[in-house]
Structures are given as structure tokens and as C-alpha cells.
Write a structure and sequence with these properties.
alpha/beta, D-Maltodextrin-Binding Protein, domain 2, 5-stranded mixed sheet, elongated
Length: about 260
């Protein structure tokens, strides 16, 4: 059998083969992974972790989260923290970030709408708003209303129900909504106002979903920070947050899906 001739270096065929190999290496080569540093409101912790895992599997980029109260995170942003995306628990702080030149104006959108719940680990304690009139209650937990939107919502709900003055001396404050939940879960407070997302995946204890007309809406905005304006992975993360995979996670945790 006659052997095929081996192309000579510099021949037209070798040039074509090398060019094709180069094009394939560019178009099919691995994506350069980037790290997306995201400041996340504490109420969204569990959902964010699941969304981050899906984002990493889908895009190859990695998410690095910092969780805390919205006010504390914003303070860190103003002090130069290296975040590229901000997921707040309200609209106020993202608006302030834009006004201060710390965020990209047209990037802001509502990524979730949260709900407030009154919760106790005691399965018989929380029935409805009448629980707030129980004179035997020693401690009720809320998040710090100065830095945490869920804390402000809790105060507004108690004021609307006319019980805040009676309960004020019994309130214990968590630095954020996650710590507030821990106060209740460990029995350090008989009950507390927590994010529905923290208890949506289990049926333990007792709860009352606070009617939304009793407090300002818990519309939670996301915004691209100036540090991430030129980072492709940051843009992709925000797009992913608005997509169907992320929406399914939000719903499981009791959120409305935002815009």
C-alpha cells in the first residue's frame, strides 16, 4: 500500500492545519475563571449559597460571599471593601451606593421580595398577632433596626399593632437577621421576628406570617459596584441572579422573585 506523503514544513497544508488548531484552541479552550466578591444581606444567606453553587457549575466562575446586615455591609463598601456586587435587604442602601458614585446606576434591580415572620421554637407558642400581647413573654428578638431592614420592618409591625411600647423593654437585638434567628432557635428569646427564608424549609416550631400591610415592603435590590464594572463574571452573576435557576431557589426559600 502506498504511503501518503507527509506535508513539508511551510507547505500550504501545514499552514491550514496549524491555523485550524489555533482557532480551535481559542474557541474551545477553558474559560478563565474569575472570583466574584459579593456582599450579601444575612437573610439571603442560604439561598445565595445555593445560587452560587449553580452559578459556578454553569459558568466556571467562583463566588466569594460576605454575609451581614445591609447597613454593616454598606459601611464596609464605603470604606473600600473589595466587593463587586451588593445584594441588599432593601432599596435604600443600593440607592445610596449609586448616589455616592460607588455603584453603576443602571445596574440596580429588585432580585427578591422577602417576608417577615414571627417565630418560636415552641410549637404551641405563636398563633397570630395575639401572641404579642402575652404578658408572660420575657424576651422577643429582632434584628437591629438601625442596620437591618428586617429589624425596621419588625418595629413597624409592632407599632402598627399598637404593642411596641409595651414590648420595647423586652426586646433583644441581633446584629443581623441570622443572629436574631439564633436567639430564638437556642431559646434565648421565646420568639422573634425573623426572615421567612430562614424557616421556610422546615416545619419545626410555630410561626405567624406577618401581613405585608403592617410594615414597609421588603424589596431587596442588587447593584453592580464600581469595582465590578469591568469584570465579566460580575455581570454574568447578576444576569444569573435574574434567571430561572436562581428564581427556583428563591421560591423554595419563600421569596417572591423580584422584577
Amino acid at each position: 500500500m502506498k504511503k501518503k506523503p507527509i506535508p513539508e514544513p511551510g507547505s500550504r497544508l501545514v499552514t491550514i492545519l496549524l491555523t485550524t488548531a489555533f482557532i480551535l484552541s481559542v474557541t474551545t479552550g477553558p474559560v478563565v475563571a474569575q472570583e466574584v466578591r459579593v456582599a450579601v444581606a444575612a437573610n439571603f444567606t442560604a439561598a445565595a449559597k445555593e445560587i452560587g453553587t449553580l452559578f459556578e457549575r454553569t459558568t466556571g466562575h467562583k463566588t466569594l460571599y460576605s454575609f451581614g446586615s445591609t447597613g454593616q455591609l454598606y459601611a464596609q463598601i464605603t470604606q473600600g471593601a473589595p466587593f463587586v456586587v451588593f445584594l441588599a435587604a432593601d432599596r435604600i442602601y443600593p440607592e445610596q451606593a449609586v448616589a455616592a458614585g460607588l455603584a453603576v446606576a443602571d445596574s440596580r434591580f429588585t432580585y427578591a421580595r422577602g417576608r417577615l415572620a414571627l417565630f418560636s421554637r415552641d410549637s404551641a407558642l405563636v398563633m397570630d398577632e395575639t401572641t404579642l400581647h402575652d404578658p408572660g413573654i420575657v424576651k422577643i428578638a429582632i434584628a437591629n433596626p438601625v442596620t437591618a431592614p428586617y429589624g425596621r420592618a419588625a418595629v413597624a409591625a409592632m407599632e402598627a399593632l399598637g404593642v411596641y411600647q409595651d414590648l420595647a423593654h423586652r426586646i433583644v437585638q441581633g446584629n443581623n437577621i441570622s443572629q436574631t434567628y439564633q436567639f430564638v432557635a437556642t431559646g434565648n428569646a421565646e420568639f422573634g421576628f425573623v426572615a421567612l427564608s430562614r424557616i421556610a424549609r422546615h416545619g419545626a416550631g410555630s410561626r405567624w406570617l406577618v401581613p405585608e400591610h403592617l410594615h414597609p415592603p421588603l424589596a431587596q435590590d442588587a447593584v453592580l459596584l464600581r469595582r465590578g464594572a469591568d469584570q465579566e463574571a460580575a455581570h454574568r452573576f447578576l444576569a444569573f441572579l435574574r434567571g430561572s435557576q436562581a428564581a427556583a431557589v428563591k421560591i423554595r426559600y419563600g421569596y417572591d422573585t423580584g422584577d
